[in-house]
Amino acid sequence: MFGRVLGTTMVQVARSIAFVLFPISFIALLAWATAGSATGNTGDPLRAALWIWLGAHQVPFSLALPPANIAGYLSYLPLGAVILPIFAIRSGINRVIDRLDNDTSLLPLARLLFAIEYSVAAMLLSYFSSTQSVKPVWYLAPVFVFPLVLVTAATVGRRLVFGQAVLYGSRALALLLGISSIILGISIFTHLSTVKNLTTVLEPGILGGLLLLLLNILYIPNAVVATLGYFSGAGFAVGSGTMVAPWRFDLNSIPAFPLLGALPTGKSLFALFGIVLVILTGALLASWTIDLNMKILVQSLVVSALMCVVIGIAGSGALLTDAMSAVGVSPWKFTLTLVAELSLGAFLALYLPRLGKR
Description:
Helices cover 64% and strands 8% of the residues. By secondary structure, it is of the alpha+beta class. The model has no long low-confidence stretch (mean pLDDT 87).
C-alpha cells in the first residue's frame, strides 16, 4: 500500500511542477527571443523559468551583481505568484485522491509524501539551476515549500477541521487585509499620474509592458501587507534606512516601479486613525467569542499573532542591492503592533461595559 501511494504521489508531483513550469518556460523563451542576445543560448531562458518557478514558491536567491560581482540578495518576492503553485498542488492532490479510489484512510500519508517529494524536487531544482551570478538558496527551499504544500494539501479532499480559535483569528486578520486592499486601491486611483510617470520612465515596450503589468499585479499582496503596516502605525521600508509611517517619513527617492506610485508623499497623522480600525477589529473579535469563553479569545489572539509573524516575514525582505536590503514591513514591529492593538480592542470590549455598570 505504501508503494502504491509513493508511486502515485511521485507522478502527480512531477505533473504539478510541469503544470506551472511549462507555461513559464514558454513565456521566458518568447521574451528571450524578442529581446535577442548575442552571447546567450536557449538554456538561459529555461534556467530563468526555473528561477521564476522557485520565486513563486518564495525561495530566496543569493546574487553576484554585474559588472563587479557585488553581493546581493533577493527575498522580497511577489506573494501573488504563490497562487500558481497552489492551483497546481491542489490539482495534483485531487488526482492523487482519484488514483487511490477516494480511499480517505490513505489521504494523510498521501499528503505527507506529496509534500516531502515536492520539497525535495524544489531543493534539487534550486541546486542544479545555480550559476555564478544567481544562486537559489537551495537549503532553504524545503523551509518555504514544505509548509506551503502541506497547508494547500490540507484544503483538498477530507479537509482538516480547524478549531474555533483558528477560524476567529484568521477572520480578524482577513478583515484587516480586506480593508487594507480597499485603501490601497483608492491610493492607486488617486496617484494614477505618478504611476503613469513611473511606467513611462521604464519604457518597457509592448511585451515588456505586459510583463511589467503582470509583475505589478503579483506584487499587490505585498503592497496590501505594507498598507496594513502603515495604517497600524508600524510602517514599512522601501530601502535601507527608510521609513514610511503616518508619524515618520524618511524616503528621498523610490525605484522606478509603477506600484510604488501609490506611496504617501509625507507624514499624515490623520492616517493614525487606522489604529482605531485595528482596535475595533480586536473588539469585534471579542464580540465573536463572548458567547464562548475567555480561553477561545486568548487562543484567537495567539493564532492572530502567529499569522502576523508569517505575514510579516512574507511581506518583508531584500531586493537585490544593499541599498534595498530592507523592503516591506518589519516582521517583529508588524506583529507586536497588530497584536497589541487587537488585544487592546478585546480588553476594552470586555471591561468597559463592566466599568459602566459600576
